[in-house]
Each structure stands twice: as structure tokens, then as C-alpha cells.
């Protein structure tokens, strides 16, 4: 009898038990109705339209449009990550990160780079033949790039107001 107890103890590996039934991440359903949430969703949608419209053309022949693609995809990925962070409330669970300062720096840099990108995109439209696929897509992407710039500028303003009113250390 003693031998069977020892054998069964050997067969069952000792695995640490983790409580995985409770999660610390929560979905903040009211975030998407705030001005910040609406701006972030608009940035995601318009930014995605910019890189999809350019990506469906022969953009690689123009180095300026490669820059547009780089900025559009980079900021789209970063904006999606920031949206998920705010949506799940991670920013409240990691207080050591200065989130208001980070958000302000991110949105101001995105506004600046997207403004340059939108101008480059608009100037690159002249390289295509009017009425052709590339021309139409590049013109539409320039329009959405300017809309994305406006959204990032709005987010910058909101981030500045929050940063100014909070006593967060820089």
C-alpha cells in the first residue's frame, strides 16, 4: 500500500497552481464614447485607409510614398496599441509610467509627422496620370492623411489639456 502511494506521487507532476479565472484587465465600455476614445478610433480608421489605399498601388516606385507608408503603418500600429491600453485600463494599473506625458508626446509627434506625410502624399499625386488607379488611390490617401492629421491634432489638444490640469511630473 505504501508503495502505490509513492508511485502515484511520482506520476503526478508538481505544477504550481495559478488562479487564471480572474483577470486584472477590464474592458472600459465608456472609453469609446469619450472624446479621446473617438479621436483614437478615428485615427485608427483613417490611418488604416491611408496605408491601404497606397498599399494597393505601385507606390514603391516613388521613395516619397515609401515614407508615407512607413509613417502611416508605424503610427497606425502605435495608435492601436495605445487604444488597447486605454480600453483595457492598463494605464491605471501601471502608475509608474507618466501616461499623460507619454500621450502628449505621442500625439504631438504624430501630428507633426502626419502633417509632413500628408503634404508629401498630396505632392506625390502629381506623379500619377489623372483618372488612373494610382492617381485616384493616392488622391484619396492624401485626403485621409489630412483627416488623420486633424484627428491627431485634436488628440494632442485633449492630451495637452489633461497634462496641464494634472500635476504629473515630467
Can you summarize this structure?
With 170 residues, the protein is mainly α. It contains six helices and no strands.
Annotate the secondary structure layout.
Layout: H1 2-11, H2 35-55, H3 63-88, H4 90-93, H5 99-124, H6 133-165
Helix pairs in contact: 2-3, 2-6, 3-5, 5-6
Structure characterization notes:
With about 170 residues, the protein is mainly α. It is built from 6 helices and no strands. Helix 3 packs antiparallel against helix 5. The radius of gyration is 24 Å and the shape is elongated. The termini are far apart.
Keywords:
mainly alpha, 170 residues
Q: Which structural class matches the secondary elements? A: mainly alpha
Largest sheet: none
* Beta-strand percent range: under 5%
Helical stretch count?
6
Task: Determine the mean pLDDT.
Answer: 85
Report Rg.
24 Å
Unreliable segments (pLDDT under 50, ≥5 consecutive)? 18-22
What distance lies between the first and last C-alpha atoms, to the nearest angstrom? Answer: 68 Å
Helical residues, percent = over 70%
**Principal-axis shape:** elongated
The total strand number stands at: 0
When the domains are counted, the total is 1
Amino acid at each position: 500500500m505504501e508503495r502505490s502511494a509513492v508511485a502515484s506521487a511520482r506520476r503526478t507532476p508538481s505544477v504550481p497552481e495559478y488562479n487564471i479565472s480572474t483577470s486584472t484587465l477590464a474592458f472600459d465600455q465608456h472609453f469609446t464614447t469619450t472624446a479621446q476614445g473617438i479621436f483614437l478610433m478615428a485615427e485608427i480608421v483613417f490611418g488604416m485607409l491611408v496605408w491601404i489605399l497606397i498599399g494597393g498601388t505601385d507606390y514603391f516606385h516613388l521613395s516619397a510614398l515609401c515614407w508615407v507608408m512607413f509613417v502611416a503603418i508605424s503610427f497606425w500600429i502605435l495608435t492601436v496599441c495605445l487604444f488597447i491600453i486605454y480600453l483595457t485600463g492598463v494605464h491605471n494599473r501601471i502608475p509608474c509610467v507618466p501616461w499623460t506625458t507619454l500621450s502628449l508626446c505621442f500625439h504631438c509627434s504624430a501630428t507633426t509627422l502626419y502633417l509632413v506625410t500628408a503634404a508629401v502624399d498630396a505632392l506625390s499625386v502629381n506623379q500619377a496620370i489623372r483618372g488612373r488607379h494610382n492617381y485616384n488611390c493616392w488622391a484619396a490617401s492624401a485626403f485621409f492623411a489630412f483627416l488623420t492629421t486633424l484627428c491627431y491634432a485634436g488628440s494632442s489638444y485633449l492630451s495637452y489639456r489633461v497634462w496641464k490640469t494634472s500635476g504629473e511630473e515630467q
